[in-house]
Amino acid sequence: MTPEEIIHRFGRVGPTLNLYPIENRLSDGARSLLGSDLVSRYPRMSGPGYLYGDPSNVGDLYEECASLAREYFQVDHALVHFLSGLHAMQSMISTLSEPGERIVSLGPDAGGHYATEQICRDFGHDVGLLPFDGVELRLDMDRLAELHRAVPSRFYYVDLSTALRVPDMEQMRNAVGSDALVCFDASHILGLLPVLYDLPDLWRHISLCTASTHKTFPGPQKAVMLSSDEKVAADMSEHLKFRVSSAHTNSVGALAVTFSELMDSRQAYARAVIANARRLAELLSDRGLCVVGEHFGFTETHQIWVLPPDDTQDPVDWGAQLQSCGIRASVVHLPAQGTSGLRLGTQELTRTGMDLDAMTEVADLTARALGGGDPEVIRKEVAALTARYVTVRTDFA
Length: 397
Description:
By secondary structure, this protein is of the alpha/beta class. 41% of the residues lie in helices and 16% in strands.
């Protein structure tokens, strides 16, 4: 293919209704920096016997981005150099773990990240599992306390990935004691942290938070580390040059723009995402779909879980019906009834201005697509709906 053909074919996603819980929409301002001259630039680096010059002072951008992150999340320390959630995870484990120690994390059956166990084993660690309540769909803190008394561990890692509810980190700290390292992967809920937790209080209970920046937080595909633990922050900073070389300065710029744009609306945006998720879940349930979590209001995050209608329906084939209708969605293993199902999210819908009323149209289209509606007809209706919501919002009242 020629450059022109590649640009024409892949340079734009067509009109789709995006219910992926792992994607979001950049603003035009943030997007403009991705293709700027920053894409080729490194910040100044120096030490005994070496100097990487930076006449343009782009290093100031890294400092500004970190400062904005600290303000946004009311935290003492922030590193903005990591390229992805997995990059941040591996950097955290390789820096903070001790050789061969046991790391206790969430299993995939409890909503943990699929890669955590393998990464830990690749680093030579044993792996334990955090106890999970499959009915309430959250960590079982009483069992965790019992586990810690029976088999004490130094390193606990809440790698939250598929989650309708969030753990009480103060309870977790009480369960494992003050000396344990408690790390938290908030990739899915980073943009919701300002309302899910009392942030100054949260940092007293955890040692470190890692998170990708393109899911509920609507920044570029990148990752951050946040901590108010002085020793942990110092250790991560000291080893940073061995964990990342190019931090992709253009993405640092886009991240800084996103922090700045949403600073005053960060709580209102988070509330709107969660409210839309709860409303959409309720509407899908009203339309006869098996939506998980009715007894606690369906969701506390941006995610919605929908189970296939019966055991004869292959979850992947069922979910593929959405794709054929122009609806972006994901099918993953859900920590409910031991099966795969739809994991949907409302963060991009909210980002483009869809409100509680718009969720009715979204629910109708989704239910019709899953019920075997005509893909051609539904795609046209999807295009008509998304055409009304093309402006990325940065102000949420």
